[in-house]
């Protein structure tokens, strides 16, 4: 009986969009975290958005149009999210520590692109590093690498 109910809901309430690949899900999760950092302060949004586009293009080897489409998808997913768990859990399952450290470094770049570090931005990068199980020393070293660019 439970199987029939499950089948009913899957058939009648399934999204019409095709399933995303694991790689695309991971990309969207990363971009959603980028967008969260951008939303933390009221300054530099244009610089932050431009940096996010650049990071997405470089990190995932995409064209500008592909990166913009992926960012738009991530914005939609981010609006639907109630917390960071759906993004961080996916990243934790599929990424190495090195990849997670690179993500934290990218988050620092976004937070610092406007020339000042807002306390809310610093708090969020710290929180995300903890959720991604990035050791504190790597969190600090990532910040120092970005500070010295």
Report on this model:
With 149 residues, this protein is mainly alpha-helical. The protein contains eight helices and no strands. It starts with a helix and ends with a helix.
Name a few traits of the molecule.
76% helix; 149 residues; mainly alpha; 0% strand; single chain
Fold blueprint:
Layout: H1 2-13, H2 22-38, H3 45-60, H4 64-80, H5 85-94, H6 97-112, H7 119-131, H8 136-147
Gyration radius, to the nearest Å? 17 Å
Ranges where pLDDT stays below 50 over 5 or more residues in a row are none
What gap, in angstroms, lies between the N and C termini? 60 Å
Strands, count? 0
| Helical fraction | over 70%
Which structural class matches the secondary elements?
Answer: mainly alpha
Oligomer status: single chain
Sheet having the most strands: none
Instruction: Tell me the number of helical segments per DSSP (H or I, 4 or more residues long).
Output: 8
Mean pLDDT: 89
Strand content: under 5%
Order of helices and strands: HHHHHHHH
The shape is globular
Summarize the structure.
With 149 residues, the chain is mainly α. It is 76% helix and 0% strand. Helix 2 (22-38) runs antiparallel to helix 3, helix 2 (22-38) crosses helix 4 (64-80) and helix 2 runs antiparallel to helix 7 (119-131).
């Amino acid at each position: 009986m439970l199987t029939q109910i499950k089948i009913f809901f899957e058939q009648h309430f399934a999204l019409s969009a095709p399933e995303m690949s694991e790689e695309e899900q991971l990309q969207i999760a990363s971009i959603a975290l980028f967008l969260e950092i951008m939303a933390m302060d009221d300054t530099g949004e244009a610089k932050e958005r431009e940096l996010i586009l650049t990071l997405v293009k470089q990190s995932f080897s995409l064209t500008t149009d592909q990166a913009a489409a992926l960012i738009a998808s991530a914005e939609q997913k981010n609006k639907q999210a109630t917390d960071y768990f759906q993004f961080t859990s996916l990243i934790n399952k599929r990424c190495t520590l090195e990849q997670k450290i690179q993500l934290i470094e990218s988050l620092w770049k976004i937070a610092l692109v406007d020339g000042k570090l807002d306390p809310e931005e610093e708090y969020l990068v710290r929180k995300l590093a903890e959720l991604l199980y990035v050791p504190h020393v790597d969190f600090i070293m990532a910040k120092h690498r970005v500070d010295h660019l």
